[in-house]
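A further point concerns the way the authors explain their paired sequence and structure data. Nothing conveys this as quickly as seeing an actual entry. An entry of this sort, consisting of the sequence and the corresponding backbone structure tokens, reads as follows:
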Amino acid sequence: MTDIQLQIQQLSNTLEQHNYQYYVLDNPSIPDAEYDRLLRQLQQLEQRYPEYASEHSPTQKVGAQALSKFSQIEHRMPMLSLDNAFDDNEFYAFVKRAETAVGQVQFCCEPKLDGLAVSLIYRNGKLESAATRGDGRVGEDITQNVRTIKNVPLSLVGDDFPAVLEVRGEVVMPTAGFEALNARAIAKNEKTFVNPRNAAAGSLRQLDSKVTASRPLAFYAYSLGVVEDQQQPLADTHYQQLQQLKAWGLPSSKETKLLTSAEAVLDYYQDIGERRSNLGYDIDGVVIKINSLAQQQTLGFVARAPRWAIAFKFPAQEEMTELLDVEFQVGRTGAITPVARLKPVFVGGVTVSNATLHNADEVERLGVKVGDTVILRRAGDVIPQIVSVVEAKREGKTLTDIVFPTECPVCGSSVDKQEGETISRCSGGLFCQAQRTQAIRHFSSRKALDIDGMGDKVVEQLVAKEMVKTPADLFELNASMVTTLERMGPKSAANLIAAISAAKTTTLAKFLYSLGIREVGEATAANLASHFKSLEAIENATVEQLLEVDDIGNVVAEHIQLFFSQAENIEVINKLIASGVNWPAIEEVAADAQPLAGQTWVLTGSLSVLNRNDAKAKLQQLGAKVAGSVSKNTDCVAAGEKAGSKLTKAAELGIKVIDEQGLISIFEQYGA
């Protein structure tokens, strides 16, 4: 056997094992991105050395064999997979091949849902059977389980559907449902699911349909399969067929778009990629299909995929890397958090070298050790986290247990863990330099009193030199004191003192948030301010009165009351007010302070001056609702550089569009 043959055989065996883990056990041993790399490596070898390619190669397969514990259903029309594109060049190559073969094309684009592909058969409008994709030829009979999915109709709507209708689509688990499911599993000390895709697959492949019924699943149609005895001709485009399915009561993705150019497809890809973490369900790319069914038929198929469709993948949200060390950080409330130091890896669009391990319970649940190969997940702006250990990579490695400190790593105070809590905390309070540092950072942050120039390095020096022990001490600083800090000249010092002085005028909501009360974020602070109207009323509120506020439960109410019952906290608050920190009374806010009330705005493109989150917050402050997509109900679109499909749609609908400078002018006009 040659070296190339051996390499192909080893790759094939590795991929087969991963296929078994993924499709059969619903327990993937490597991230999708690593699987894609291995598969592409095998494809390239087989293309260069076709004499060694096998019809049984993983490159020729769609999934895995159906599980024997289920009855099996043979697909009358094979359920194929899709080829992938990972960059613009590969996408344009797909377009060029299609246009060379059939001429000008239109595209039907939809999110690539990360779930389990299924086939539903309706006979005379009634759901007759449901099956997984399996190996593309034979799938598992999951009819009883699919019947429990709330948005799958058991009977079609209308009377013009075909006598036999096969609908293909994806079953997914929405993000919120997945998080709740895992939270319940953790509470019961049960095994959690790695990601929503595994949760959806595991939920569908239950022998007891009552278990499936208890899981939050949803189905979205993406194509037709076998159709017999239709009463009227079906639509001749993919997009219109999806509309027909919707009319018969079958849900499809509301993000599906019909586009006429490759450039519009790239805009769509970019737009939905930006909104990926806010969709409410996992997607890993965009599926792009040639819209005309006649052109699809001309283009045909290769062994495992159609030539008329491609999956344009997003940057991977999961990658493998090595856990090099674990350090323990102390937060502003004393919480001691293990932070994983990782071999840098590119995931979710950025290079990541650190990740949270949350607490001791999470470390125990994962069974992770220093030296392990781990799977790292980063979705949207979510803090990167380790989701599992690749145990197969442990062989021959020296691993070290993660041991939690019994003393604070910063101040040496004892570490306490209250009953019912999962987090250990330093008992040192403001004696602990780490807690002081974090408290000052939080107080000065943009969402709190927004002190310009109060960066991390400045805060660290102020605390280290003991110039600042509480937030109130900031207002006792002067320029001569500040010039003693590193890299702080007279001009920079004067600017910082001016910024501190300007921060004295704020709002009650921001002031409450700045205090760093446990569990009191921006929304809770705003609700408190709106409900009680004054700081004095909040200070004197009972737990029962606090529970009357929206979104405040017993735990948060107790944290708030405890904070205001402690003399040292009241002393700091009194010093802040004595220093001149103030806010307008709630009743004094002018009635016209929300000139954009009732309007819907959309932000698109890159903003060069404004921070997007700031712009959104200012619009909301002025009363506007900020939406993620353009519709006929949109009042105005603020477009930055490289604005794409949203700007195009605004023009089509005749919606007002302003540039970034126009947005800044509005903020200046209304004092936002």
